[in-house]
Write a structure and sequence with these properties.
Elements: H1 11-23, H2 43-59, E1 61-62, E2 65-66, H3 69-83, E3 89-92, E4 98-101, H4 110-126, H5 133-155
Antiparallel strand pairs: 1-2, 3-4
Helix pairs in contact: 2-3, 2-4, 2-5, 3-4, 4-5
Length: about 160
């Protein structure tokens, strides 16, 4: 059987999923894995993150160095991970230097991705970054999303 993903949006999808589970064979030596999780980050979130990172790359000199968007993504995700008290590990690089193991934004869920976007905005503001119009619109989206979800969580 091929992997199937269901996005639980309505009662019909829920019932389809229940029916699918009921039809699965029960075999202790070859059990099926069923995983329930919040959705991963959205393509829209990814598109919002990159203009912000570009603004950092163009405008911020950090300890005498300029960094590209990918480097800033690594630094910001490390900041968010640290704020969540997630373990940050490093290892000596095979060819020299140091390798930092971090969180991949492609594996993030929607909520943590909003935190990354907000952290970019916070850090950029602290560094005096003038965010581009594209970035400003995307920041406003992130703030609206955060407020809407904060209100939903408070109501739950």
């Amino acid at each position: 059987m091929d992997k199937k993903n269901y996005y639980l949006r309505n009662s019909q999808i829920r019932q389809t999923l229940i029916d699918q589970i009921k039809q699965l064979p029960l075999d202790p030596s070859k059990p099926f894995e069923v995983e329930l999780s919040p959705p991963k980050r959205t393509l829209s979130q990814n598109k919002k993150m990159w203009p912000l990172l570009h603004d950092l790359a163009v405008q911020v000199v950090w300890y005498g160095e300029k960094y590209d968007e990918d480097d800033w993504k690594d630094m910001i995700t490390a900041l968010v991970a640290k704020s969540k008290k997630q373990e940050q590990r490093t290892a000596p690089g095979i060819g020299g230097g140091v390798v930092m193991f971090g969180v991949r934004t492609s594996k993030m869920r929607v909520g943590p991705m909003v935190e990354v976007i907000e952290a970019i905005y916070w850090f950029g503001t602290e560094q005096g970054v003038r965010f581009s119009e594209e970035s400003r619109l995307r920041i406003e989206w992130a703030q609206r999303w955060g407020e809407a979800n904060k209100n939903k969580q408070a109501a739950a």
